[in-house]
Design a protein that fits this description.
mainly alpha; 2 domains; 3 strands; globular
Length: about 450
């Protein structure tokens, strides 16, 4: 997260520059606090599994071995120039080399000397194998789903969604790919070079076009529209795709970042669904409208509830289909592929932490039930192991929003207004799902 967002602050004034340098100067204290926290966790027997620990160490080694330091990519304030700009950059370089780097070296030593020897087996990576871990996981399920749903029920819901999606693959992808063999469909989507990008320019152009298409259509489906624009920007490190919110003062638009370091990582069928999730009508409408709503208390203007935040973005991928945004049946297959990942998450996250699955069992399940490649799946499984419960919010949140919409459509019949429904869902900031349900029910009752 530091390397992804750290060098991308939109610095303009000299004051911005000073504040950024202060942030970097404060970073060593944060890193040392983190080192102390994980060292204490070792003493209490609360350590991640081997694969996650090894990746943490590898990440630190990559950063420390990089030249120049990736954090030096931050541009000086736009209003500085010449000697002033050079002086600012020299100060940043000194802070990074004399203060930040030693703290990273210390953190690396703690991970290598204390955490690696204590790492737990990949055969038993779940929380259930820690003292009190099963109870902790149930609390994390509640925190990320914002509903009291037992982990085993979440697991069952995931299995149900995976089965439903397999039927959709045969209906949508089967005719496109010319096969009714589910394994062959998944394999083609993973490996067929004709279904993957080969150059970054085409990838950038397609992402920009998809975002523009969504922006042009959103007025037909949403009553309140964001003032902040959303732009698509390529990067060469970090996650495959993510969204960064606009600045309140208008100095920075909402931004859909997508990684183009290896264009072949992207399926041509995958890009549009991802754009609609991260950009419009997904995170951008949700986040920008919340930030721009001056009637909200500040605490409701910050994204805090995973099931609401990610549930809306996943719901948006299906709404994009209703809006007619997908360019082809193959692009609709990308919607199914995104659903597969989120449905499998319900199965493997609960499988690992509540049912005692090994790392390999979770990897094999996700490879067998989605078109994701094995390396992609491995990264996902290690994420769920290291951050228990977080990945449950996507599909559980979407299912709740769909349920609220279906109920409202049933109760209001021909009085149902999709734009009004969306405005209600997006109009109260970041909400737990139970609170969102009350808001929607109030709207339905007042619409009768």
């Amino acid at each position: 997260m530091l390397l992804t967002f750290g060098p991308r602050f939109p610095l303009v004034t000299a004051e911005h520059g000073e504040r950024y340098l202060t942030r970097m100067a404060n970073l060593p204290a944060t890193l040392r606090d983190f080192a102390a926290r994980i060292s204490s966790a070792v003493d209490r027997g609360r350590v991640a599994n081997q694969a996650v620990v090894d990746q943490t160490l590898s990440g630190l080694d990559r950063h420390l071995g990089a030249s120049p330091d990736p954090l030096l990519a931050q541009e000086p304030p736009a209003e500085s120039e010449g000697v002033e700009s050079d002086r600012w950059r020299a100060r940043l370089e000194t802070i990074l080399s004399d203060e930040v780097r030693p703290a990273l070296v210390e953190l690396r030593s703690v991970v290598a000397d204390r955490v690696v020897p204590a790492a737990r087996s990949d055969e038993q990576p779940g929380l259930m194998y820690l003292d009190g871990g099963a109870e902790s996981y149930e609390r994390l399920v509640w925190a990320n789903v914002s509903r009291s749903v037992p982990s085993r029920r979440v697991h069952e819901i995931g299995l149900e969604q995976v089965r439903r999606l397999e039927t959709e693959y045969l209906e949508v992808a089967g005719p496109v790919l010319g096969t009714n063999d589910l394994s062959e469909i998944y394999d083609r989507l993973r490996t067929d070079p004709d279904l993957h990008y080969s150059d970054a320019d085409t990838l950038v152009g397609d992402a920009t076009a998809a975002l523009a298409k969504a922006a042009a259509a959103m007025g037909d489906w949403f009553g309140v529209l964001p003032q902040s624009p959303c732009i698509a920007t390529s990067i060469e490190q970090g996650p495959l795709a993510f969204y960064s919110q606009p600045a309140m003062d208008g100095s920075k638009p909402g931004t859909f970042f997508f990684n183009t370091s290896d264009p072949a990582m992207w399926g041509t069928f995958q890009l549009e669904a991802t754009t609609y999730h991260e950009g419009i009508p997904g995170h951008h409408l949700q986040v920008a409208l919340t930030l721009e709503n001056e009637d909200l208390h500040p605490i409701h203007r910050e994204p805090l509830v995973t099931a609401y935040l990610e549930g809306w973005a996943l719901y948006s991928e299906r709404v994009a289909d209703e809006m007619g945004l997908y360019s082809s049946e193959l692009d609709r297959v990308g919607m199914l592929a995104a659903d597969s990942m989120r449905a499998c998450r319900l199965v493997v996250d609960t499988g690992i932490h509540a049912l005692g699955w090994s790392r390999d069992r979770a990897i094999d399940y996700m490879v067998d039930h989605s078109p994701m490649t094995r390396p992609q799946v491995i990264g996902e499984i290690d994420r769920y192991t290291g951050v228990p419960g977080q990945a449950l919010g996507y599909m559980m949140g979407r299912l709740e929003i769909e349920k609220l919409r279906a109920d409202a459509e049933s109760r209001l019949a021909d009085r149902f207004d999709i734009k009004a429904f969306h405005d209600v869902v997006l109009g109260h900031g970041d909400l737990p799902l139970a609170t969102l349900e009350r808001r929607v029910n109030d709207w339905v009752e007042h619409s009768n």
